[in-house]
TrEMBL record:
Pfam families: DUF512, PDZ_6, Radical_SAM_2. InterPro entries: Aldolase_TIM, DUF512, PDZ, PDZ_6, PDZ_sf, Put_radical_SAM-like_N, rSAM_sf. Transmembrane segments: none annotated. It comes from Effusibacillus consociatus. This is DUF512 domain-containing protein. Residues 4-35 form the PDZ domain.
Length: 459
């Protein structure tokens, strides 16, 4: 039974006098075994809660609530029961490429279809039993995000490191038959699942369109901490250009046939190849921005919309430093060029090399506080430092290396302004007009099944 870890102030749970340690046995007679049971049951506007108090006393509570109103509790585990862990040995797994002394959450290998449904995590489906597939179908748990990598059974068994990995097409066929929408991904490893294997994967997944809604292709991410693992190298600029050509040729076919591009190259390929990203209509409603697909296009289009709002001057002199990773530097520079025309405003761009993970890692989302401090200590003359929120953990102002924003600020002797990782955050942050920005979005990406984390488009 789900045990309550915390009760949020002012919540329905507080009004009902629920407390940490209490267990929710059922809602409207439905036993609550995990977060999916809870999420479906709590949508009813009239509910009967069966609660076992921490002292063993049993309560039966009738509640009238709004459709979107939750109890306002935090659970002991994100899935209420325990998270389904990953038992794969993916040849590109990022967790195997990080220092061993990092915080526990970064070493967690989750592969839970419930987190895919609720939060968009990518899962491999290797730990699913038939009962899990039937539950997904019965509850219409859609969309799911699935890490495919290849549809070649033998190759997938090797790449994912699991004897059931080769069953992926049968699993996708079952989900498609039951009208489950899927977004899929390939982490592209040179000389492994590229070339003809990439063509095969695209062709075999396209059969299941529109249930397989999109397919993203992202380059493998490698760090300097990669030891005792399969031999692997990064994608070269020439290979990135070939992948783009290959994918865009497929897009032309799918656009003519279905009116949708279906398969997309991650922004990082365009950065590597030195090419302009496609127009917005090529991105299928930007279904995979979380996977680094279309973020540059979103940034540039948003920047174009903001041009008319940039003033000719500001009253007080202002000098800010914009901090970014290597990949998005060219994109961010286009925004800074617009700001250079503003009288009384000076904007410096500081591109942070990733010494912590290694220089092969170039995305902003994996930038650490220690690297920012080391590289800005003697070079930053600005009065204010701006960083994008994608550098920080979801529930605290903490970088991947456990540096806090407060520590970075103290060591540099300057205030640090955390902003949304988009064009609005860049422009309004630089101008000092931040009171109407939307709540910033912070998260800590799951590292287990990721290729390139972070994004090329965020500043």
């Amino acid at each position: 039974m789900p045990k309550i870890q915390a009760v949020r102030p002012g919540s329905l749970a507080e009004e009902l006098e629920l407390q940490p340690g209490d267990e929710i046995k059922s809602i409207n007679g439905q036993p609550i075994k995990d977060i999916v049971d809870y999420q479906f049951a709590i949508t009813d506007e009239a509910i009967e809660l069966e609660v076992i108090k921490a002292d063993g006393e049993e309560w039966l509570i009738d509640v009238e609530k709004g459709y979107d109103e939750s109890l306002g509790v935090d659970w002991e585990h994100p899935t209420v029961d325990r998270i389904k862990l990953c038992h794969n040995k993916c040849v590109f797994c990022f967790v195997d490429q990080i220092p061993g002394n990092m915080r526990q959450t970064l070493n967690m290998r989750d592969d839970d279809y419930r987190l895919s449904f609720l939060h968009g995590n990518f899962v491999t489906l290797t730990n699913l039993k038939q009962a899990d597939l039937e539950r997904i179908a019965k509850l219409k748990m859609s969309p799911l995000n699935i890490s495919v990598h290849t549809t070649n059974p033998e190759l997938r068994n090797f790449m994912v490191g699991h004897k059931k990995a080769g069953e992926i097409l049968n699993q996708i066929a079952y989900l498609a038959e039951h009208e489950i929408e899927m977004n899929t991904q390939i982490v592209l490893c040179p000389e492994m699942n590229d070339g003809e294997e990439l063509d095969r994967t695209i062709r075999e997944l396209a059969v299941f369109w529109p249930h397989v809604r999109t397919l993203s292709v992202v380059p493998v991410g490698l760090t300097k901490h990669r030891r005792g693992l399969a031999e692997m190298r990064s994608v070269t600029p020439d290979e990135a250009a070939k992948v783009i050509d290959q994918i865009e040729a497929w897009q032309e076919q799918f656009l003519k046939k279905n009116g949708t591009a279906f398969v997309h190259a991650a922004d990082e390929f365009y950065v590597l190849a030195g090419r302009e990203v496609p127009p917005a209509e090529r991105y299928d409603e930007f279904a995979q921005t979380e996977n680094g697909v279309g973020l540059i296009r979103n940034f540039l289009d948003e920047l174009e919309d903001l041009k008319e709002q940039i003033p000719a001057s500001i009253q007080a002199r202002r000098h800010v430093a914009v901090v970014t990773g290597v990949s998005p530097a060219g994109t961010i520079q286009r925004g800074i060029k617009l700001l250079e025309k503003v009288e009384n405003l000076k904007v410096d761009l500081h591109v942070i090399r990733n010494d912590f993970y290694g220089h092969m890692v170039t995305v902003t989302g994996l930038t650490t506080g220690s690297d920012i401090v080391a590289q800005l200590k003697d070079s930053c003359t600005a009065e204010i430092i701006m960083i994008p929120d994608i550098m920080l953990k979801d529930d605290a102002d903490i970088f991947l290396d456990d540096y806090t924003v407060e520590r970075v600020s103290a060591e540099l002797g300057k205030p640090v302004l955390v902003l949304p990782a988009n064009a609005t955050g860049l422009i309004k942050g630089a101008l000092g007009v931040t009171e109407h920005l939307p709540p910033r979005r912070r998260y800590e990406a799951t590292l287990a099944n990721a290729g390139m984390l972070g994004c090329a488009g965020g500043f």
